[in-house]
Every structure is written in structure tokens, then in C-alpha cells.
Amino acid sequence: MRVGEIVTAGILALLSIYMMYKASANGIGYTTGTGPQGGFWPFWLATGMLISTGFIALNWVRRATPQSRSEEPVLDRFGVKTLLLVGGGIIGFVALIDIVSMYGAIAIFLLYYLKLLGQHSWRLTVPMVVLFPLGLFFFFEGLMQISMPTGLSFTDPVYNVLYDIIY
Amino acid sequence: MEILSLLGDGMLVAIQPLNLLLILVGVTVGLFIGAMPGLGSVNGVAILLPVTFLVPPGSAIIFLAAIYYGAMYGGAISSITLGIPGASTAVATTFDGRPLALMGKARLALVAAAIGSFVGGTVSNILFTAFAPILAAVALSFGPPEIFALMLLAFATFVGLGGDDIAKTVFSICFGLVLATVGFDQISGAPRLLLFDLTGFLGGISFLVLAIGVYGIGEMLWTIESTRGEISKTDADISVKGVIEDMGETVRKGWKGTAIGSFLGFFVGVLPAAGATPASLMSYAVTKMVSKRPDEFGKGHVGGVTAPEAGNNSASTGSMLPMLTLGIPGSPTTAILLGGMVIWGLTPGPRLFVDQPDFVWGLIGSFYVSNFFALLVNLSFIPLFIWMLRMPFTVLAPVIFVLSVVGGYAAMQDMFDIWLILVFGFGAFFLRKFDYPLAPAVLAIVLGPIAEPTLRQSLLMSSGDPSIFFTRPISMPIMVVAIILILLPALKYLRPRRSSVAE
């Protein structure tokens, strides 16, 4: 944790410097007649971020915070496994949206999480996988008139049937 | 007496069968729209605006105001049950509402939110009825320096909201404010801070993207990892007797927060451009500051739920005041209501109270009725929301992830935002591990678009002289209080260090 604390502060300091650099492209001074330039506000805020990371580093040197004293790992084996299985599952879910549609991706993600990670019965999994995306479809597309991505063309027959119900 | 007579007439208009039906439908629809992450009162009012052409203008605005009320109540539901603030106004409700739910006291949190909202709404209705013209004049005296001073005061309260590590809190505030500047410069119109030259940033970063990333993804991953996956479900009892007991506990423990939120929220809501989010945050911070046990806040204090809920509901009614009396919308939702009124041939402004008294007092009467019905509908749906919480965590977690992604997409309808949610989510997971407070960043991204233009306008007014904030009678005391609030925790931070060095 102690190493992670200073590495995180370092990454955030680099991010702050990058934001200062990007903000400076819009000008950080004051122009008579038009007031502060576009980069003025974000530049000085990013400077505030950089100064804060300096204080975080100072606290690290002084071992003033629990994280700067802790010798525990940032992620143990369980943490790594959780991040890979749950976090990876979410990334897979989002990646599938453009292929199998939003509602198709929801169904696949629910199947993965409920059956593989949660180890629930088929009696719970199947109704959730079918009814939850359907309920969301009718709420968003029917009631709220918000269209979600429909994926590649092979999903069209399913959506044609569903849209016929709404319209 | 004349006001009471006009209000009585207005109430009679509001309880006509058609209007009563519209109020009931409006608050119910609003409740569910508000409870859905990614959707808030602005979506509900905007989407259902065309529906209102089927009824007379007076009934139409009553219907939209009822949706507005319902959504304000509903925002707390996702904050408490799912831990995701559905709207920026409900971010502060998450601080204590979610811990209460995790302690098995979700029913208490939901009841406290409903009661706080009801009292806040009622107090603001009374203030609205009695002082509308006077307060409209006060609101007009707030120029850019005063609004910026108010924003600085809100940021000062963030320092108190953060953890013990002030450097991390300040980082979080500045980070949220910088993210709010991504996109186009509001004044020059030039593209700004297109990070890594990605064109997706041209549209800016929505509050919801950061909020859903932090709370819907990051916080959930952290909960699963830190509890070693041992949360099976949240225990919560459903019974009428329990709801009544919770009402008593809300009154005992949450009255101070409710009172502060009700009055402070209304005042902040009245100010043009301020709105319900700073109102809820400031109500929370002030309640925590004056509490005898401030350390209990953030861990499941009833006052931490009633204060922001009373504050945001009170501010919602307050924000109607500049809309009706001056024609200035105080929030995005009231801007749409204003548009609706113009379409129906009503002209908001000082003449509205004189030219259309039936309409105005009918609307004010409907605020009282809507608020009452919103309480009833909210309380009657509590068993349903509790039932949701009783699902095993391995069922609830994927549902929350799905709602986060769907809600994130529904707000802007851009896949770039969904990927950004994931980036913020994973980033928030790691920052949470190192105890970075992330709520200030979420709130800063909401207030940033108000703070920056008012700062720039103020400096333009003074030809770049920052003393403008300290020479105006309203901005000066607000600035002084803000600076004291910023310095107080800093002094507290230094004091133990000095003593430990001395030892």
C-alpha cells in the first residue's frame, strides 16, 4: 500500500501537469476587454491538483496517513481475481453492446454474472436474463422514447418484432 | 389575509378531479423516473411536455410540477437502495443513506428521505406563498460576484465533507472542477482540454458520467473486493408498524437537518443559477457542522439524509420563484417548465401574478397538494424498494452494473460516455483504496459550470481586480465565511501535527 500511495500520487501529478499543458493552449492570462482567457480557470485548478499531490507526497514521506504506513498489498489474490472476473465482465458487457445490441449485451452479462459468478439456479437466472432486458426495453424505448444501440444487422428480426409491439 | 384567500382559491383549483388525477399520475411517474439512475426530473418533464397539450394550460403545468416533485422524492431512492445518485441533487443523500441501507436500516433511510422531502417542500411552499415578491427582489441583487462567492462557499463545505486527508480532498475538488471545463469554453466558444485529442471530449463530461462511474462501478467494485464477496443481502424489515416507528426516529434524530435544509434550501433555490444541488450539499454540510456528533455523519446518521432531502426539495420549490416572478429559470427543469408556459400563451414575469392570478394561485395550490401526494405515494412504495434490497447481493450487483451502463447511455446517448464511465469507475476503485474522497469531485463537476463563468464575469466587471469579491456588501461576508471554512479544517489538520512534533 505504501508503494502504491506514492505511485498513485506520481501518476496524478503527471495528469495534473498534462492538464496544465492542455489548458495553457487556450491562454492563461487576462485580456483587456474580454477578461480571463479560456485556459485561465482550468490551468490554475490543475496547478492546485499538482500542489495537492506535492502535499500527498510530503505526507507519504512523513508517514502521516494510514496508507503511507501500511505494508499490505494494494490488491491481494482475491482482489486481483475480483477485478478480473467482475471488472473484466463489465468491460466485456460494454464491448458487446455494438455487436449484440444493448439489450443483448445485458442478457449475456446477466447470464455470466448470475450463473457463473453468483452460481444461481437456472430458475432464477433464465427469468432474469429474459425479463429484465425486456422490461428495460419497454421502459426506455416505449415509455421514455430513448433508443439504445441495436447492434449488428443480425439482431434486426428480434427488434422488428419488439418495435411492432410498441408502435 | 388576501394571500390566504388567494391560496384557498388556488387549492380549490388544484383539487378539481382532473387536476387531482394529474397530480397523482405525475408524482407516481416522477417518482419512478427520479429513482432510475441517469434519469431525473428534467427528463420526465421534457419527455412528457407534449402530453400536456391534451389538457388545459393550468392543468398541464400542474401535471409537470407534480412530475418535478415526484422526481425530487425519487432521486433519494436510488441513492439509498443502489448507492448511485440518480441525479446531482441526490449525491449528498448517498453519504448517509447508503450506509444506513448497508446497516439494514434502508426503511429508516427511505422514511427519513420522504419526511425530510415533505417538510422541506411544505416549508418552502409557505415561504413561497408569503414572500414571493420580496424574495424575487433579493434574488435579483445577486450578480456574478455574489454567485461566485456562493459557489466558493459550497466548495469550502466540501473540505469539511472530505476525509482527514485535506490534500486529497483539495485534489478531488480541483479535479472535478477541471473535468467540468472539458469541451467548449463557454465564453469564447473555443474547444478546450480535449484530453489525448479525443473528439469525444468535445461534448464535455457530464456529471452523470463521473457520478455513475464513481458510485455505480467504482464503489461497487470496492464493496465486492473489500467485503471479500461476503455481502449476501441487506436485511430490511417491511411492516407498517416499522414505518411508523421510523417516522418517530426521523423526527427525533433528523429534525435539525430537516429544519436547516428546509430554510437554507429555499434561500439557495431562489437564487438564479444556484439550484437544488448546492442547496442539498450546503444543508448537509451545515447540519454536520452544527451537530454535536459530526463524526457520525457519513456512517449512517438520519440527519445526513433529512438535511439534503429537505434542502433539495425546498430548493426545487424555491427555484420556481424566479421563474414565475422574473421569468428566470433557476434550474434546467424550470427552464423547460418556462418553455411550456410560453407555448401555452402564459408570460412568466412580474405581470403574471396580476394578469393570470387563477393560474398562478392554482399552481401554488398544486405545490401543496403534489407535495402531500408525493409523500403518500413514496411511503406506499417503500415496501417495493425494500424488497429490491432483500435480493442476494450477487443478483443486486449485476442489476446495478446494468442500470449504470443503461442509465449512462440514456443520458447522452453516446458510447464514448459509457467507456468514460468505465475509466472513471476503475480509477475510482483504485483512488478509493488510497482513501481519496470522491464525492467532492462529483459535486465540483456539477458546480464548475456555474463557478467559472461567474468568476470570469466578475473579473471582467472589475477589469481583473479580485478585490471586487470583498467590496460588495453581499459577496464580502459570503467570501469571508467561505475562507474561514476552508482555513478551519486546515488549522485542525496542522494542530495535532504540531503537538506530535512537540512530543
Structural features, described:
The complex is a heterodimer of chains A (167) and B (503). In chain A, strands 1-2 form a two-stranded antiparallel sheet. Helices cover 74% and strands 2% of the residues of chain A. Chain A is mainly α and 167 residues long. Chain A has 2 domains: 1-74; 75-167, no CATH class. A two-stranded antiparallel ribbon of chain B has the order 1-2. The radius of gyration of chain B is 22 Å and the shape is globular. Chain B is mainly alpha-helical and 503 residues long. Chain B has one domain. Chain B is 75% helix and 1% strand. Chain B has helices at residues 2-14, 17-35, 41-48, 57-81, 91-102, 106-140, 144-161, 166-180, 207-226, 240-270, 276-290, 303-318, 320-326, 332-343, 352-355, 357-389, 393-412, 415-433, 439-461, 468-471, 475-502; strands at residues 183-184, 191-192. In chain B, α3 (41-48) runs antiparallel to α4. In chain B, 61% of the residues are buried. The chains are: A mainly alpha (167), B mainly alpha (503). The interface between A and B is large, with 70 and 65 residues.
Secondary-structure map:
The complex is a heterodimer of chains A (167) and B (503).
Chain A: H1 2-24, E1 30-31, E2 35-36, H2 40-62, H3 66-69, H4 77-100, H5 102-117, H6 122-143, H7 156-166
Antiparallel strand pairs in A: 1-2
Helix pairs in contact in A: 1-2, 4-5, 5-6
Chain B: H1 2-14, H2 17-35, H3 41-48, H4 57-81, H5 91-102, H6 106-140, H7 144-161, H8 166-180, E1 183-184, E2 191-192, H9 207-226, H10 240-270, H11 276-290, H12 303-318, H13 320-326, H14 332-343, H15 352-355, H16 357-389, H17 393-412, H18 415-433, H19 439-461, H20 468-471, H21 475-502
Antiparallel strand pairs in B: 1-2
Major beta sheet, strand line-up of chain B: 1-2
Low-confidence stretches of chain B: 499-503
Q: Helical stretch count of chain B?
A: 21
Q: Strand pairing plus helix content of chain B: what structural class? A: mainly alpha
Q: How many helices of chain A?
A: 7
Q: What kind of assembly state do the chains in view correspond to?
A: heterodimer
Q: What's the N-to-C terminus distance of chain A?
A: 56 Å
**Strand-residue proportion of chain A:** under 5%
Number of domains of chain A: 2
C-alpha-based Rg of chain B, rounded: 22 Å
Largest sheet geometry of chain B: 2 strands, antiparallel
Which percent bin holds the helix content of chain A? over 70%
Unreliable residue stretches of chain A: none
- Which word captures the global form of chain A? flat
Q: What characteristic shape of chain B results from the CA principal axes?
A: globular
- The count of strands of chain B amounts to 2
Report the order of strands and helices of chain A. Answer: HEEHHHHHH
Spatial extent as radius of gyration of chain A: 25 Å
Q: In percent, how much strand structure appears in the residues of chain B? A: under 5%
